[in-house]
Amino acid sequence: MILNKGPPSEFETNNKISNSGGTDMYIEHPYFYEGKYYANIDGEGFMIEDFPDLNCDVEHCVLTKMEQQDIHKVINQLNSEERMIIYGIFFENKTQTQMAEIMGISRQMLL
What we know:
- By secondary structure, this protein is an alpha+beta fold.
- It has one domain (3-110): Arc Repressor Mutant, subunit A, CATH 1.10.10.
- 39% of the residues lie in helices and 14% in strands.
- It contains 4 helices and 5 strands; from the N terminus they run E-E-E-E-E-H-H-H-H.
């Protein structure tokens, strides 16, 4: 995920987040493949078949895809602020303090 302060990129879809600081933020859901980030390799515009992994056996590929789908289902059940926190801390390597500043709240409220 990339947190942007500004208009969404072509890969962002329905991920506008308005935080208590009054700043609109946009979240990308990147998948890194051959040096590029993609919004979704298993949804609109991109299919998993478009990105073959020649070293992947079928069972491993199916299990990996199922795990990714399960993770996306759970993340999609979170509210936008919770998703923003998860992506910022785990995918952007931001600290809790940095995320609190981005969201316009105290670090204690973030927990």
